[in-house]
Design goal:
The complex is a heterodimer of chains A (119) and B (564).
Chain A: E1 12-22, E2 28-38, H1 43-53, E3 74-77, E4 80-83, E5 93-97, E6 104-106, E7 109-110
Parallel strand pairs in A: 1-5
Antiparallel strand pairs in A: 1-2, 3-4, 3-5, 6-7
Chain B: E1 5-8, E2 11-14, H1 18-29, E3 34-38, E4 55-56, H2 67-77, H3 84-103, E5 129-130, H4 137-151, E6 155-159, E7 161-169, E8 172-180, E9 185-190, E10 193-196, H5 217-224, E11 229-230, E12 235-238, E13 242-244, H6 255-262, E14 265-267, H7 290-302, E15 312-315, H8 321-328, H9 331-337, E16 347-349, E17 352-356, E18 359-360, E19 373-375, H10 393-414, H11 422-436, H12 446-460, E20 464-465, H13 467-482, H14 498-522, E21 531-532, E22 544-551, E23 554-561
Parallel strand pairs in B: 1-9, 2-3, 2-10, 3-6, 10-19, 20-21
Antiparallel strand pairs in B: 4-5, 7-8, 8-9, 11-18, 11-22, 12-17, 13-16, 14-15, 15-16, 22-23
The structure holds flavin-adenine dinucleotide and FE2/S2 (inorganic) cluster.
Chain lengths: 119, 564
């Protein structure tokens, strides 16, 4: 069955994401990507789309996906600790870094688990 | 890629949601050494932490109630297909688990006299559903169980380990194989008993309430181990799923508690009430069972009376602003952050994939048809039949988890001679290594194929189905499983390689998806959550459970009349 809704149109904007890629703070670089979005989309929406459409090697940790309960998607967004799933994409350059003061696993994923919960 | 890792335990629990954490606690208190694994983070990765609303339990604190009445409601919602034994275990076991959680510091909302508050959720005949304010029931349960499992010396918890295969010897469980996600190292786990608590498969649908980890891997694991699954065609669509405007910071199930609590009005695109056209009373009933509500919304949109984004409106505009604020508490700020003002605008909703009724066939010990293999929580089929009552999934996870843990511990105590043989595990370990090395081709990424699966499931295996669509979906899913999967390219990353994890999600999840499409095609009737446009009525010939198994490479099913 097809769902016939009236057409809806929203303006498509572009965010430029400058993302830390690497396995430690000394071993890595920034990579930039353009991500299309509509008003209201979150940074995590952009990262998930980017992994599917353009770079599946990007590492990012999340689970509940915009519900903001798992608390796994924390990262630095323009230098401030934020949840990527509720921070909104903006039509400008946005810099994404892994959380400070924690070992980097890869890219935006830091080691947030207690030692005894890992191999 | 790193060297192999090897561990041993009496009971392996796969998946750390409500079912898995309760299973671990119960197995440990029955003497077992337990390994509790989650591909994400124990206690955070699944649906349990996301469950905002209520948990059904015949405590009889808000009004007289008993498990027998709860059972009657559950059976009637299940449209004739419930396994009555399992449903009874759920209803009888719920009060004990709720009180146990209270002892572990879950602050159930209480009235001034200290009694636990119970509300009447749709489909229940009594005020039966308990909750933690505001919308944090699942989070509170998970916090308590995370705490409990971390303090128990008999439980080892490992996060970011995904299970990819079960290891069998002569048709019985010998252990499992998985991947340590941070290092991509293969992991070998020797154990006589495994409890699958991997939750549902709703991530396989484009629009879903699920977390990122719920793609039916447990169903694939069970089928490939030779276990039977049951009634997998029944997948619940949550009627009031948020559709528009874009909202982040709250999951899309938000509106049901709000609607029930405050009496939100459902209106079609023309601003008219419509539930009465589908057999409900004028004025918007809040009692409507989920399958009926989903039908009403679909049909209204199909008739061309949808809202701009193809759903219907939910309006709270008739409700006093202060009353809204009191009822919503801190949640109203989240609406504000998303520029949603409920006193001035209606939101749009549409049914969204939410919960899987079918699953692994289990007996009343939660044991599957494979000795040593147990299943609990959403992945266990049978208790909810063709449609689940609101609030019944959390007690299902907790009661079944606890019971499976105890039974699996007893089983492992009786089966102390290890069946493990490295040779049997080797092909599974090799598959992980070979897959990680598929970096050079120009095939699409697993994420791409997953996106196609989600669109296909949403478009052709949704809440309203027909033979032609189901056939197309089944054929395509089968080709994906037997062809596309081998042509995918994996990112060449040594650690935290999500594309490797996604490849294994697809390997097991595609089997689950194909099982669903295939079972939906064979059930030529409409019942509960399974609605066929080409067979719009319930048919007594199908008052039967559909049991399915993997034979060679084929999914084969048969119907069997419902028995208690
Ligand atoms: C948004 C939302 C709201 C809900 N609200 C309610 C409610 O109010 N009341 C109610 O009764 N029910 C509700 N439900 C349903 C209920 O939450 C679930 O059915 C229940 O929590 C399932 O528990 P579980 O332990 O079986 O699975 P989950 O809690 O989903 O846990 C499964 C775990 O298994 C892990 N896993 C999966 N595959 C693997 C693998 N291969 N290897 C290792 N780990 C793996 C996952 O990472 C996850 O952590 C809701 C569901 C959702 C999505
Ligand atoms: S993805 Fe769960 S909190 Fe952001």
């Amino acid at each position: 069955m097809t769902i016939a809704g009236q057409e809806h149109t929203a303006a498509v904007k572009t965010a430029r994401l400058r993302i830390w890629r690497g396995t430690s703070r000394d071993n890595g670089r920034y990579q930039e990507y353009d991500v299309k979005f509509e008003d209201g989309d979150s940074v995590l929406d952009g990262l998930v789309r980017l992994r599917v459409d353009c770079d599946p090697s990007l590492a990012v940790r999340f689970s509940c996906f915009n519900a903001n309960v798992c608390k796994e998607c924390t990262m630095l967004i323009d230098g401030t600790v934020e949840y990527a799933c509720i921070a909104k994409l903006q039509p400008r350059l946005m810099q994404l870094d892994p959380l400070p003061n924690l070992p980097i696993v890869r890219d935006l994923v830091t080691d947030t688990l207690s030692r005894k919960e890992r191999f | 890629m790193s060297d192999e890792l090897a561990v041993e335990c009496d009971v392996l629990v796969v998946g750390g949601g409500g079912a898995g954490m309760f299973a671990a606690v119960a197995a440990a208190r029955n003497g077992a050494q337990v390994l509790l694994l989650d591909k994400n983070v124990v206690g955070r990765g699944g649906a349990t932490i996301m469950a905002q609303m209520t948990c059904a339990s015949a405590l009889g604190e808000s009004e007289p109630d008993n498990p027998q009445l709860h059972l009657e409601d559950t059976l009637s919602a299940g449209r004739g297909l419930c396994n009555e034994n399992l449903a009874a275990i759920l209803c009888e076991g719920s009060p004990e688990r709720i009180r146990e959680l209270a002892g572990w510091n879950v602050n159930w909302a209480r009235s001034e006299d200290g009694k636990i508050n119970q509300v009447k959720a749709p489909g229940h005949s009594r005020k039966r559903c308990v909750y933690v304010d505001f919308l944090s029931t699942g989070a509170a349960i998970c916090a308590a169980l995370r705490n409990k499992t971390s303090r128990d010396g008999k439980i080892r918890r490992l996060s970011n380990v995904t299970v990819t295969d079960l290891v069998l010897r002569d048709g019985e469980i010998a252990g499992a194989v998985g991947i340590d996600v941070p290092t991509s190292a293969p992991v070998k786990i020797k154990c006589p008993a495994v409890i699958l608590c991997t939750g549902g498969m709703t991530k396989m649908f484009q629009r879903t309430t699920a977390s990122n980890n719920l793609c039916g891997e447990g169903i694939g694991l069970a089928l490939r181990a030779g276990a039977r699954i049951i009634d997998i065609e029944f997948l619940q669509f949550y009627p009031n799923g948020h559709l528009a405007p874009r909202m982040v910071g709250l999951d899309p199930t938000t509106w049901e508690p709000t609607r029930v609590k405050l009496g939100g009005r459902l209106l079609n695109g023309k601003g008219e009430e419509f539930l009465h056209r589908y057999g409900e009373a004028e004025g918007g009933s809040y009692d409507t069972a989920r399958d009926i509500l989903t039908t009403a919304i679909y049909k209204e949109v199909e008739a061309g009376r949808g809202s701009p984004h193809g759903g219907v409106f939910l309006s709270f505009q008739h409700i006093d602003e202060q009353k809204l604020k009191d009822a919503l508490g801190p949640v109203i700020e989240i609406f504000e952050r998303n520029n949603i003002n409920l006193t001035r605008q209606a939101v749009e909703i549409f049914p969204i994939a939410h919960y899987q009724m079918g699953g692994v066939e289990v007996d009343s010990d939660l044991c599957s048809t494979v000795p040593g293999l147990y299943a609990a929580g959403e992945i266990a089929g049978g208790a909810n039949g063709a449609n689940r009552l609101s609030g019944n999934a959390l007690p299902e996870a907790m009661v079944f988890g606890e019971r499976a843990g105890a039974k699996a511990a007893q089983y492992s105590a009786r089966n102390t001679t290890s069946r493990w043989d490295d040779k049997l595990a080797q092909p599974h370990v090799d598959l992980i290594r070979q897959t990680a090395e598929r970096n050079s081709g120009d095939g699409p990424s697993p994420g791409r194929l997953m996106a196609e699966v989600k669109a296909l499931m949403w478009g052709k295996v949704g809440a309203f189905r027909n033979g032609a669509d189901l056939e197309t979906a089944r054929t395509r899913l089968r080709t994906m499983r037997q062809g596309d999967l081998d042509a995918l390219t994996i990112a060449p990353e040594p650690g935290f390689n999500t594309s490797l994890v996604e490849w294994f999600e697809l390997r097991n999840g595609l089997l689950a998806a194909e099982a669903l499409a295939s079972a939906a095609l064979t059930r030529e009737e409409s019942r509960g959550a399974h609605q066929r446009d080409d067979f719009p009525a319930a048919d007594d010939r199908f008052l039967a459970n559909q049991r399915m198994q993997l034979e060679g490479n084929d999914l084969v099913s048969e119907f069997r009349k419902v028995r208690a």
